[in-house]
Amino acid sequence: MERHAEVARQRTPRLGGRVVAVFRAEAGQESWTASAGPGEQVREFEGWDPRVRTLLGQAGQVFRHGLYTRAPLTRWNVGRVTLLGDSAHAMVPFQAQGAARAILDAVVLGDALAAVSPAEVPEALHRYVARRIGSTTRVRAGSTRAGEDYHLPDGPEADARNSRLVSYGAENRIGPHAAVWAADILAEEAPS
Asked: Is residue 83 left, alpha or beta, with left meaning phi > 0 and alpha meaning psi from -120 to 50?
C-alpha cells in the first residue's frame, strides 16, 4: 500500500502546534468527522523512521479526511445566484491555490457587479463566470497533476520528477507553479 507522511508546523495553538497529514492511495469514508481507531496512525507506519512514528504517536484525536477530485462544474450560476471558491471549483491542495482562487473570484465578482442595476445582475454573473472559469479550470487541473506527480511511488518516474524539481529550484527562487500568481485578473477578459 502506498503511503507517506507530511509534517507542517503551525502556529495555531488549537492544533497543538502541528498538522500531520497521512496520505494513502485507497479511498476512505467521505467525512470531516470520521475518527481513526486508537493507535491506527502508528500501526500504518510500522517499520518507518522512529521520528515519524513518535510524532504520529503524539497525536491526540485523529480524524480521517479524504482528498477527492470532482468533475468540474460546467455552470456556476442560475439567475441571480452564483457560486465562488470551493463551491464552484473545489481543488486538491497541491498548489495551495484553493483560498487564493476564492479571493480572486470575489474580486472579479465585485468588479462584474459594480454599477449594475438589479435587472442586469444575471448577465453580470455570466460575465463573472466567463472571466473566471478558464483560468480556474487550468489551475484546478494543474493542482490535480501536481498531486499525482508529488505522490509517485519510488522508481524512475519519481527520480525524473525529483531531478526536474531540483533543476527548477536551482534556476528559480520560487516554485514551478508560481505562474498562477502573475495574472492581472481584472485585466483578463472572457474568451471570445
From this structure: beta
Task: Kindly report each contact of residues 33-42 with a partner whose C-beta sits within 8 Å and lies 24 or more positions away, as own/partner.
Answer: 33/63, 34/63, 34/64, 34/65, 35/61, 35/62, 35/63, 35/64, 36/62, 36/63, 36/64
Location of C-alpha cell 493507535? 39
How far, in Å, CA of 10 to CA of 17, rounded? Answer: 5
**Encoded amino acid at 54, one letter:** T
How do residues 71-124 score in pLDDT, each as one tens digit? 889 899 999 999 999 999 999 988 888 899 999 999 999 999 999 999 999 999
Tens of pLDDT, residues 1-56: 466 777 666 565 555 555 566 666 566 677 878 888 888 888 888 888 898 888 88
How far is 158 from 149, CA to CA, in rounded Å? 8
- pTM here is 0.73
Residues 125-143, buried b or exposed e (16+ Cβ, 10 A)? Answer: bebbbbbbbebbeebbebb
User: DSSP character for 60?
Assistant: S
Question: Which residue type, as a one-letter code, is found at position 51?
Answer: R
* Helical ranges in the chain per DSSP H: 40-43, 50-57, 86-89, 98-113, 121-150, 156-171
Which value, to the nearest 10 degrees, does the dihedral of the CA atoms of residues 151, 94, 83, 132 take? -110
